[in-house]
Amino acid sequence: MWYSGSTSDNQSGGASKPMGKFLLIILTIVATAVTTSAQDSGAPPAIYKSEADILTGLEQAAASSASAGGWSVTVSPGITVRRRSSSVEQYAIFHPYSVEIYRILEGSGTLVTGGLLKLPLAESPNPNIIRTANGIEGGLARRVSEGDILVLQPGTPHWFSSIDGDSITYMESRVRIATNPVQYQ
Description:
There is one protein chain. The chain is an alpha+beta fold. The protein folds into two domains: 7-41; 51-176, YhcH/YjgK/YiaL (Jelly Rolls). It has three helices and twelve strands. The model is unreliable at 1-10 (pLDDT under 50).
């Protein structure tokens, strides 16, 4: 007989009390499992890369190529630590779809921002990098050094016109924010 909730059925049937206890035990086990599972899943831990790993990665990248874009170690998608060398010609560039944030970690130099890229433009395999080997016309030249932060809006030309010493190292965050290219060129 199915338990109807009346005391007369409960007393006469006798089977409903054990069934109720059984259901209560099952529900308690299921609730405990769900709660434990939810507590165990949680958020993922932070992405971490040690200074030693970053420096080793930069040294290995520098040993394998001489790039105008410098050498970089990716910390997570869109976040890199980049080192540029004073011994390699620097391209003036802009990113028509992305904002970039630089935090200078080591070294110093002159960064020109704004203005226009001097023509002719150089070939680029990436549609988010428009570049020239001829520098920038106009713009604002600023001496940058350790601790400085710069925010480059989409379409803003930028160029290290000079790097003091051997190199400059900075953390670069590049986030694509535009669906249509931003260009002042």
